[in-house]
Amino acid sequence: MKKNLLIYSSTDGQTKNICYRIQSFSNKEVSSKVIKIENVDTENLENYNKIIVGASIRYGKHNKEVFKFIEKNKNILENKKTAFFSVNVVARKSDKNTPETNPYVIKFLKKTNWKPNKTAVFAGKIDYPKYDFFDKHVIRLIMFMTKGPTDLSKTYEFTDWDAVDKFAKEISNINDY
Q1: 2-11, 69-78, 167-176: which has the minimum mean pLDDT?
Q2: Domain edges within the chain
Q3: 3-state SS of the chain?
Q4: What's the distance, CA 58 to chain centroid?
Q5: How many whole angstroms separate alpha carbon 58 and alpha carbon 88?
Q6: Are strands 50-58 and 61-62 parallel, antiparallel or unpaired?
Q7: Among candidate residues 40, 123, 108, 49, the one with its CA nearest the CA of residue 82
Q8: pLDDT band at 166 (very low <50, low <70, confident <90, very high)
Q9: pTM (2 decimals)?
C-alpha cells in the first residue's frame, strides 16, 4: 500500500483543516497520515511515497520549524514525490494567489532551495474573536493597511475550497505528478 504524509504548521488551525481536506481525497490504495510539524521527527520519512508540507504565515513569516524540517530532510524530499502549499491572507488578493505571484511562496522556495513537484497557495482565515488582544489589534492594523476587513467582532474565511479540492485531486494519485 502506498503511503502519504501530510505535514502542517498552523497558527490558528486553517492549514491543519486544509491538510485534512486534502487527505479526504486519498484513494483506497493510499494510506494518508496528517501530522503536526513539531511531531514529524517521530516519523520515518523513507516509509512514505509522497510528502506534502503545508505552512501558514503569521506576521510575514513561515514557522522556523518548517525551514528546519526542509533543511534536515532535503535529500529525502528530493527523492520523493512532494508538494508544498502556503496559507496566508495575502493570497485573498487575485494578484497574489498563485505560487508564482505570492511573495511568501517565492521567498520560501528561494530560501529553502527546495523544488517540490507541486506548489500551491491558499488564502487563510482571520478569526478576530479568537485572537488575544495583541494579535487582534496587530492583525487589524495590517488589514487596515492592506485594505482588508477590520471588524473585530467577525471571522473572515478567505480560503477557496474549490482551489484546495483541485490541488488535492492533482496530488491524490502518486503517479499524477
Answers
A1: 167-176
A2: 2-124+159-171, 126-158
A3: CEEEEEEEECCCCHHHHHHHHHHCCCCCCEEEEEEEHHHHHHCCHHHCCEEEEEEEEECCEECHHHHHHHHHHHHHHHCCEEEEEEECHHHHCHHHCCCCCCHHHHHHHHHHCCCCCEEEEECCEEEHHHCCHHHHHHHHHHHHHCCCCCCCCCEEECCCHHHHHHHHHHHCCCCCC
A4: 12
A5: 8
A6: antiparallel
A7: 49
A8: very high
A9: 0.93
Cell of 140: 487589524
Contacts of 118 (CB under 8 A, 6+ apart): 82, 83, 84, 167, 170, 171, 177
Which residue has 471588524 as its cell numbers? Answer: 151
CATH number corresponding to 2-124+159-171: 3.40.50.360
Unique residue bearing C-alpha cell 487596515:
144
pLDDT in tens, 60-99: 999 999 999 999 999 999 999 999 999 999 999 999 999 9
